[in-house]
Amino acid sequence: MRTLALDVGTKRIGVAMSDELGITAQGLETIIVEPGKNCFEEIKKIVREFNIKEIVVGLPLNMNGTKGEKADEVIKFVEELKKNIENPIKLWDERLTTMEAERMLLKSDISRNKRKNVKDMLAAQLILQNYLTYRTDKNV
Fold first, then answer.
1. CATH number at residue 84
2. Which family does it belong to (predicted)?
3. Largest CA distance in the chain
4. Integer distance in angstroms from the first to the last C-alpha of the chain?
């Protein structure tokens, strides 16, 4: 069963996917958010192409666990996604994943321009791997 993860931002959406056994996460792509571009159609295409069974969307909570403006934007995005896709969609606490992705890329000595293009995809991969590990540990 493949799971898709999304790291939703205002300019980019990082996309990662699990292997068929649901054990490991791999970065897939970064969707650029542009006016007039239907990101939901791109996500639907990925869901169909890879036979995705569920979707995990990173929820950017504040450090104290409360929802802020960015979390509200992601919740609104998920509500629209649900209108376009029938698969189960789960929100997953993504605190610090983007910062962790940035740290990993800095250690890799990747140029700033290349980091910008893969940071969101790597963040989605981290969100998904955390979710898959939790699911395995809890036998969910």
1. 3.30.420.140
2. Belongs to the YqgF HJR family.
3. 41
4. 13
Range of the domain at 76: 2-138
For 35-85, what is each residue's pLDDT tens digit? Answer: 888 899 999 999 999 999 999 999 998 878 888 899 999 999 999 999 999
Asked if 39 and 33 touch (Cβ cutoff 8 Å), the reply is yes
How far apart (Å, rounded) are the C-alpha atoms in residues 17 and 90?
14
Residue for token digits 């789960």?
90
Contact 42, 6 (CB under 8 A): no
Residue 57, C-beta contacts closer than 8 angstroms, at least 6 positions apart: 5, 6, 8, 74, 77, 78, 81, 89, 90, 91, 92
Residue that has been written with the tokens 């409360």 in this structure: 66
Element (H, E) at 75: helix 69-84
The C-alpha atoms of residue 5 and residue 29 are separated, in whole angstroms, by: 11
Q: Under a CB-based contact definition with an 8 Å cutoff, are residues 140 and 132 in contact? A: no
Whole-number Cα distances in Å, 70 to 61, 73, 106, 121: 8, 5, 25, 18
Count structural domains, the chain.
1
